[in-house]
Design a protein that fits this description.
globular; eleven-stranded antiparallel sheet; 3-methyladenine DNA Glycosylase, Chain A; 4 helices; three-stranded antiparallel sheet; 16 strands
Length: about 240
């Protein structure tokens, strides 16, 4: 099997496992986990042809501390199309392209966890941009947020979906993200980080989901962002799942 490099050529690689839309294998002596569409996998399986990946992971730019200094709305837009990366204890690196985000903008936002002030649970939101804020929802779902902005101004971006794993609880289950990674620094962590593949992605802005407790004004804010695909600007498939 071959995988494309950043110039569009093919580099030899050996697939040792695939599950759903993810391929595990080796290329250049390095273990990888990559997202490949199920249709392309079926095509590979039946025709014994190479699968061309959209990007060589070796050319990715890791997001730096300065990338998280913006407000949550700006951050939620910028994170569309970025790659969420998770290194497991055995060295395997899982990656998923972010396709859905929501912004939560401080104590003035009645949908935000910080609306009623600082608590033990939401304290990471007050620590400044660039760390993970992970909380348990309904006693079973770990939800991942990227804290943005300045210290003392609690804002965060909820990551609602990555390719093939849409729903904030589904993506954390797949990437094995739990509260042991709470406060993890994205710019320096070897366990959890974000990467930019150099492309710029279009998105659709809509109202946020599951915030009926918020004021009508805050419910109406278009602070949810969804990757759109193709010339028809269709929203990414299966968006808007609660968990």
């Amino acid at each position: 099997m071959a995988f494309s490099n950043s110039r569009g050529g093919f580099a030899p690689g050996r697939v040792v496992q695939w599950s759903g839309c993810w391929v595990v294998g080796y290329t250049g002596g390095t273990r990888f986990v990559a997202s490949v569409s199920l249709n392309r996998l079926n095509w590979l399986n039946t025709r014994n042809k190479p699968v061309k990946l959209a990007k060589d992971f070796g050319t990715m730019r890791r997001l730096r501390e300065t990338d998280f200094s913006c407000d949550a709305v700006t951050g939620a837009k910028l994170l569309i199309g970025k790659w969420l990366c998770r290194r497991l204890d055995d060295g395997t690196v899982l990656r998923g392209k972010i396709v859905e985000t929501e912004a939560y903008c401080g104590e003035s936002d009645s949908a935000c966890h910080a609306h009623r002030g600082k608590t033990q649970r939401n304290a990471p939101m007050y620590e400044g941009g660039g760390i993970a804020y992970i909380y348990l929802c309904y006693g079973m779902h770990n939800l991942l947020n990227v804290v943005t902005g300045a210290v003392g101004n609690p804002q965060a971006v909820l990551i609602r979906g990555v390719e093939d794993h849409v729903g904030p609880g589904k993506l954390t289950k797949f990437l094995q993200i739990d509260r042991s990674l709470n406060r993890e620094p994205f710019a320096h962590s070897e366990r959890l980080w974000l990467e930019d593949d150099g492309n710029r992605y279009r998105y659709l802005a809509t109202s946020r989901i599951g915030i009926s407790y918020a004021t009508l004004r805050d419910q109406a804010r278009k602070w949810r962002f969804v990757l759109v695909e193709g010339k028809e600007r269709k929203p990414y498939k299966a968006i808007g799942r609660n968990f």
